[in-house]
């Protein structure tokens, strides 16, 4: 990693070295997002140099603000590097775990904030068969392939362009994955659009096309802590997931194929409860994942438009998040494998359970599970997936 001191200084002090538009000072004014109301006041996206990869590729950081939300996206991995939201008193905090330099992301990141592709979560035995042909993938998680293999979409530099439509402000990210990359068939043209709406909602729209039959399952791997990243455990967050079933896993975290009922188990989040409430009750599935690391089968199924499925409230700050998606599943991961060895953007260390992910997607290992909704994409068809995160605050404790 050859990030220069000057680059790092520019990145950490927020000095925009290559503002794409007029407001170069935006990235250096951390209180602007907090001051803007939840009814608009967007600014054009700004771009700054965030670092340089070993091969000389430049990494940019883009800043977007609208409706009281400020979002920072890296061209490396399409990573959500920070997501700033006001609390019930109007105090802003970054609620997404991550690093303040590109080095952290390249060296050792458990997919903080990243776009995941071509396939979110695990594919058993690192192989699958499609139309009679077997494809071998890199095994990077025991015997399995995780999150697209050793160099997935999280480790690629994306083309980024600002995007604007009506009151929405956003970015369009593009990446072309060559036929055979990480073992997957077909040239996959992927477009991801990050949008902030005038109400401060974050919307992520994914599309992909292919020139050969393949499998696709894209998602975003942001770790949230609505009290602020680096503030400690997420166990007191109250979570609701509209899912009556989940997919239990074997000891390598591959779904067994069963769609088990959540009723009477720690997996029942149909009514809001603190994430930590049933974490220690010894359920064999919780022991297997060292916490929650499971796909929830959303009751609404696969839908053309995003439907509300999740709500989260953090009692101290009052920050709330609602998630609506087109996807049939969500991987709820309670940050179990954070182990106190990574120091985040705030300078504080992340321990197990200091962030949680809600990865809206198709089910893990679908290419090997005929009973699961299909993840096959064929030429002439377009893969589409959308997830909307709405933020707010509740009245008081
Ligand atoms: C997986 C976890 C994994 C984490 C970070 C999640 O999507 O389900 O098992 O540890 O990503 O890699």
UniProtKB/TrEMBL annotation:
Q: Tell me the organism's taxonomic lineage.
A: Bacteria, Bacillati, Actinomycetota, Actinomycetes, Kitasatosporales
- Protein's recorded name: Aldose 1-epimerase
- Region (Disordered): which ranges? 26-57
Reactions the enzyme catalyzes: alpha-D-glucose = beta-D-glucose
Q: Where is the composition biased (Basic and acidic residues)?
A: 45-57
Query: Which pathway does the database say it acts in?
Result: Carbohydrate metabolism; hexose metabolism
Q: Record's family?
A: Belongs to the aldose epimerase family.
Q: Does the keyword Isomerase apply?
A: yes
NCBIfam families in the record, alphabetically? PRK11055.1
EC number per UniProt: 5.1.3.3
């Amino acid at each position: 990693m050859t990030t220069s001191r000057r680059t790092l200084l520019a990145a950490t002090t927020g000095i925009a070295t290559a503002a794409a538009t007029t407001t170069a000072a935006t990235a250096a004014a951390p209180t602007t997002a907090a001051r803007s109301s939840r009814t608009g006041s967007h600014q054009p996206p700004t771009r700054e140099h965030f670092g340089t990869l070993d091969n000389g590729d430049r990494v940019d950081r883009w800043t977007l603000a609208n409706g009281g939300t400020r979002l920072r996206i890296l061209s490396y991995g399409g990573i959500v590097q920070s997501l700033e939201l006001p609390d019930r008193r109007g105090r802003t905090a970054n609620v997404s775990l991550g690093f303040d330099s590109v080095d952290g992301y390249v060296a050792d990141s458990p997919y903080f904030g990243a776009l995941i592709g071509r396939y979110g979560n695990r594919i058993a035995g690192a192989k699958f068969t499609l139309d009679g042909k077997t494809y071998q993938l890199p095994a990077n998680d025991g015997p399995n392939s995780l999150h697209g293999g050793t160099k997935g979409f999280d480790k690629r530099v994306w083309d980024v362009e600002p995007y604007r439509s009506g009151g929405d402000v956003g970015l369009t990210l593009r990446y072309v994955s060559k036929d055979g990359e990480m073992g997957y068939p077909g040239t996959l043209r992927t477009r991801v659009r990050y949008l902030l709406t005038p109400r401060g909602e974050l919307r992520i729209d994914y599309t992909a096309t292919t020139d050969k039959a393949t499998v696709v399952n894209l998602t975003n791997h942001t770790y949230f802590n609505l009290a602020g990243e680096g503030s400690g455990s997420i166990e007191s967050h109250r979570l609701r997931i509209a899912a009556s079933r989940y997919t239990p896993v074997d000891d390598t975290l591959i779904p067994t194929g069963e769609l088990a009922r959540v009723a009477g188990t720690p997996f029942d989040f149909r009514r809001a409860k603190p994430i930590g409430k049933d974490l220690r009750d010894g359920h064999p599935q919780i022991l297997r994942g060292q916490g929650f690391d499971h796909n929830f089968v959303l009751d609404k199924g696969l839908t053309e438009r995003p439907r509300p499925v999740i709500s989260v409230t953090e009692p101290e700050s009052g920050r709330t998040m609602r998630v609506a998606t087109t996807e049939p599943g969500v991987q709820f991961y309670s940050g179990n494998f954070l182990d106190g060895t990574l120091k985040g953007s705030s300078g504080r260390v992340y321990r197990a359970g200091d962030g949680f992910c809600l990865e809206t997607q198709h089910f893990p290992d679908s290419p090997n599970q005929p009973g699961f909704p299909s993840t096959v994409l064929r030429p002439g068809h377009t893969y589409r997936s959308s997830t909307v995160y709405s933020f707010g605050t509740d009245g008081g404790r």
